[in-house]
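Researcher: Sequence recovery benchmark, item below. Answer with residues only.
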């Protein structure tokens, strides 16, 4: 089947690459598809970067937009190691500098309860957790059990990188303790190491310019 590929160059007439048995037409298609893919990817990356800069910020500086948060993983605690297998989970290994999108826990109590009832082992949650001080952690759910009085859930989390030297690998959160200093921010629903690496590099460049 012959395929005519039309394209336009600024200042010139429309041109046509006509394939009629040779491989030139397929090469043109590959180039066009590649150009479109790179352009779309560039637009997405640019949008993500702009959002992280201008969007409203959460309690610890995370960018928020339309009920979601955008964050960048800052440690290696969620990198898969020989002792863990995360291939069966929706969200796999999260390397340092990976960008993640988080759907937030609803503010209304009844909606929050329904939200928590949908959390399962293997999901990745971002939490505010208190050791000596309050920190933000993104770890995987290893256990979730409803309390006997049905007031909430006990959620246990752990980092995937159990071979690392990190000491803060396990957390336990009681969702009924709404006044406590340890609580769930939301669930990770998307990740991109490529976008996160670009954003991290730009953030480092910006900090360097400010401090120099």
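Model:
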């Amino acid at each position: 089947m012959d395929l005519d590929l039309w394209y336009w160059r600024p200042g010139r007439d429309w041109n046509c690459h006509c394939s009629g048995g040779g491989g030139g037409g397929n090469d043109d298609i590959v180039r066009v598809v590649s150009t479109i893919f790179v352009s779309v990817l560039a637009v997405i990356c640019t949008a993500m970067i702009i959002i992280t800069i201008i969007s409203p910020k959460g309690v610890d500086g995370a960018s928020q937009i339309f009920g979601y948060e955008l964050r960048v993983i800052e440690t290696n605690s969620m990198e898969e190691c020989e002792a863990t297998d995360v291939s069966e989970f929706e969200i796999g290994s999260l390397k340092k500098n990976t960008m993640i999108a988080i759907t937030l826990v609803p503010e209304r109590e009844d909606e929050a309860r329904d939200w928590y009832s949908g959390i399962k082992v293997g999901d990745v949650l971002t939490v505010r957790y208190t050791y000596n001080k309050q920190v933000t952690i993104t770890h995987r759910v290893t256990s979730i059990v409803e309390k006997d009085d049905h007031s909430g859930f006990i959620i246990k989390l752990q980092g995937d990188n159990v071979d690392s030297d990190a000491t803060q690998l396990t957390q336990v959160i009681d969702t009924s303790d709404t006044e406590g200093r340890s609580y769930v921010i939301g669930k990770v629903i998307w990740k991109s190491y490529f976008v996160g690496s670009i954003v991290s590099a730009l953030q480092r460049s910006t900090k360097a310019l400010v401090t120099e």
